[in-house]
Prior knowledge:
Strand content: 15-25%
Shape: globular
Number of strands: 10
Order of helices and strands: HHEHHHEEHHHHHHEHHEEHEEEEH
Radius of gyration: 22 Å
Distance between the termini: 38 Å
Amino acid sequence: xxxxxxxxxxxAVIASSFTIGFTISLxxxxxxxxxxxxxxxxxxxxAETSRLRGLPPxxxxxxxxxxxxxxxxxxxxxxxxxxxxxxxxxxxxxxLVPAESSPQxxxxxxxxxxxxxxxxxxxxxxxxxMENLSKAELLRILAHESTHILQYVxxxxxxxxxxxxxxxxxxxxxxxxxxxxxxxxEAKGLKPPLRxxxxxxxxxxxxxxxxxxxxPYQYGESFVAYLRSHGGWKLVNEAYSNPPRSAEQVMHPEKxxxxxxxxxxxxxxxxxxxxxxGEDRLGEYFIQVYLAxxxxxxxxxxxxxxxxxxxACYYEDGDGGFLLVWVTMWDSSKDAKEYLEALTHALGEAGxxxxxxxxxxxxxxxxxxxxSNDKVTLISTNRVEALEAIV
Length: 391
């Protein structure tokens, strides 16, 4: 991917997730003077955002100016490879990321994008990342983060158990903050930033993980705008008591309002030599990015839109072996066939070599793909004998 293009996208992420900061050079100020400088304006923006959203403001709002080195020290602890998350283990098993990839490196690069954030009733401003930005950008960052503070004060936010559920909730939260910030600018007679889906024609594994993390900012605002168009801010507020449960409901908001659910598939029984480390639901958007990594967006979008649920179970044997069983369900046998064909295409583009009709080898990883009516099962392992036992 072109390095300059990736830089532009990073700026878009900053604009979407934390919005942007300040018009004058701040490097001449100390954190203490910056807190005073922006505290009054932040209180004004918070009060106006509170009125716009019809939500009571916090009682103990405060502004803190911090440095980028402080942010890295406190917010980029990351994970060591010896205790990496289930999410990253699944990435490796699916060959979305290579064996040598580092979750710590990615988390550090993500945190480096932060120029403002909120926690509880506190607004953090990264003072040494705030040069050469406009008045509209300044107001947008304050309105966006003010919305997060209003969310914290006024809504009980659940903790979904699945990756897919967390993505969906994050889209509601970030989409609300983005739409509120844009509405705030419009009320001031200022033009919000233009938005479009970021779908690079070709991208590597770092970009793939970035795209997955970027989901709430890609689809959140359009989801919340759809809710507001059907029931005003009242319906948006009510969504916190009944948040979207899947990326599918966010990407296709009519399915959220219709209450469309999804299947929870059963997975095959695994032998006692394998220890289940965790299970998760990955969702439609994950499938879309996973396929697009190898075969492009057109085919990936078409193949993922019939999603009707999935379940990924990750095992290890204590001796360096891993086993991932990922069962996906589809709205129809036709949708399952489209996904199967796209998945087969992706495995080939990823360098897979067919060992048999249902078995692929990619480096030291073996992948078996089986389908039955509206279900497709992908099994990935570095122990080929495990596949023989299951398949």
